[in-house]
Structure formats: C-alpha cells, structure tokens
Amino acid sequence: MESVVSEFEGTLLKDLDPFSYFMLLAFEASGLDDARLKLMVFFMTVGLWVSEIESISRAFLPKFYMDDVDMEAWKVFSSHDRRVVVTKTPRVMVERFTNEHLRADEVIGTELVVTRFGFATGFVKSDIASISRRVAKLFVDDEPILGLGRATSSFQFYSLCKEKVHPPFVTNQNLNDQQLLRPLPVIFQDGCLVKRPTPSTTLLILLWLPLGILLATIQIFIRLILPMQVIPYISHSFGGKIVVKGKPPPLASRNSPGVLFVCTHRTLMDPVILSNVVMCKIPAVTYSISRISEILSPIPTIRLTGIREVDAEKIKK
C-alpha cells in the first residue's frame, strides 16, 4: 500500500494563512508563526460550545476550503492508497472537509482544550513536535512513499517519507482514472458570508458594519410597522423586486394541512421572500445558522438538530 502524508495549509490549500477560516468561525459563531496561530485560536474559539464549532465546521467551512484547494496537489494526493493530512489548525475545523471531500484516511492536527461543560478554553494541547510524533506512530511498520509540504515547513515527519515534494506541483500526463477524479463537491449552506474573509476583506466588512447595521435597523423597523401585504410593493425602495408568477396556494386550515415548500436553500432569504408572496409568516426549518440570524429573522425559525428521527418529527409538526 502506497501512503502519502500532506500538509493542509499551503499545500492542499493554496493559502498558507488560516486567518480567514478562523474569521469565518468567529463570524458564524458570534456571535504565521506558531504564536500567532495560537493567538488566533484563542480569540476565535474561547467560550464557544464545541458542538457549535463542529456544526459550523461541517456546514460552512467546506465551501471556502474547496475554493482554496490546489488541484495539482489534489491530483498527487489522491493517487495514493492511504492518505494522511497534517494541519496546525484544530482538527475539528478541518476533519469533516478532508475526510468527506478530499477522501483522507487520517487527519492529525492540534486539539482544542475543552472544559467539562463543553466550552472551548481557546487553548490547544498539541504542538508541532507532538503532531509529528503522532504521524510517526501511524507509520511504524510502513513508511510513507511521499510527503507533500512547503520547503520551509516546521513539521518534522518528512524524514519518514521516501520522497518529499514542494509546491508548486506539476503532474505528468500518465494519470490513472483515480488521479483524474475531482474532490467530492460541496453543497453550499446559507451563512452570513459568501466571500472568504481575508485580512483585506475583513477590514472592508468591519468598515461597512456601522452603515450596514443602520440600514438593517431601518429595514427591520419598516417591516415591523408595516403589514406584510405592502412589503412586496415597497421592496424596490431597498434595491429588490418581487415578481410572482401563478397563484399562491391556500393557507392551512382545519380541513387542509397546508403545503410544504422546498426552497433552493441558497440563503435564508428564500423562505422570507416566500412568506411575502403568500402573505403569511411561514415557519422555516434552519440548519447551523447563527443565533443572530435567528433573532433578526422576520419569520419563525425552527432549528434542526442533525438527528434524523428528531428532525423528521419537527418537520412533521
């Protein structure tokens, strides 16, 4: 069995800096040297429920990770039988993406220190040396054929590999069918951000926030004082336009249970616009949206749990 060990940041991902992914975690949850990385981990995770970090890492981060994947590195990585990913980022943030979309067999990264109540302390209990030792334990009897990583990497496990390759990667034309496979696609869940918050983008977001909050407050106030029937007619004043084709179905009654609408789920605006069209505040089931979005939603929201039986009962009600 041929094995490959690859760094995540700067290798499988083109961007070495994990700043934007911690910002995504912070935006959705709010509500590079090793010291800088630990500082980011602390400020972006301290006080968060670990279950919330897992939920955000499952629902939001894969879309942005996929946008940053180096396809040439993926071709090399996917051509081996056993695939191991090594990362300085907390494992919980990358494991879902690397296992399901990059088809990794093992993910070794730092581990968040968690209180007995389920809160992240912001500290990690792994360092570069311990991560390298854990990689070594995986290959006691079978050393990896290839190591993928940056020439300036501080990881020490490359001495285990028979060969080390640095980016940029150049693949030859003799690729088998497995190597030509693309990573499994990501279904984009609705979220607060549609663009990866790099340092420059984050600065623009922060500068826009005061004006954005003011405009949002005005819109929320108008929606609260005006009846829903007039919202479609004034939407153009806020840069929107609602076009209705066909006749909306009748509302639920004692003799009719109503109609179940299935939206494209690009954003939470789908059921909001739908409510405006049928002139009724339709309850919407949500998955992994922020608490702020739930509070500001003009329609009732019902949070799903990810447990099939529990969610089925909620949807039925």
Detail the topology: elements first, then pairings.
Elements: E1 3-7, H1 8-12, H2 19-29, H3 34-45, H4 50-59, H5 61-67, H6 71-78, E2 82-90, H7 91-100, E3 106-110, E4 112-114, E5 120-124, H8 128-138, E6 146-148, E7 163-165, H9 199-225, H10 231-234, H11 269-278, E8 284-286, H12 291-296, E9 301-303, H13 308-316
Parallel strand pairs: 1-2, 1-6, 2-3, 6-7, 8-9
Antiparallel strand pairs: 4-5
Helix pairs in contact: 2-3, 4-7, 5-7
Question: Can you give me a brief rundown of this structure?
Answer:
With 317 residues, the protein is α/β, with parallel strands linked by helices. It has helices at residues 8-12, 19-29, 34-45, 50-59, 61-67, 71-78, 91-100, 128-138, 199-225, 231-234, 269-278, 291-296, 308-316; strands at 3-7, 82-90, 106-110, 112-114, 120-124, 146-148, 163-165, 284-286, 301-303.
Q: What is the name of the CATH topology of the largest domain?
A: Rossmann fold
**How would you classify the helix and strand content by structural class?**
alpha/beta
User: How can the largest sheet be summarized?
Assistant: 5 strands, parallel
CA(first)-CA(last) distance: 51 Å
Structural domains: how many = 2
**Using only CA atoms, what is the Rg?**
23 Å
Question: Helical element count?
Answer: 13
CATH architecture of the largest domain: 3-Layer(aba) Sandwich
Number of strands: 9
- In CATH's first tier, which class of the largest domain applies? Alpha Beta
Please state the overall shape, judged from the principal axes of the Cα atoms: elongated
- Widest sheet: strand order? 3-2-1-6-7
Average the pLDDT over all residues and give the rounded result: 81
Main location: membrane
GO biological process, one term: cutin biosynthetic process
Subcellular location: Membrane
Domain Glycerol-3-phosphate acyltransferase RAM2/GPAT1-8 HAD-like: 3-32, 34-165
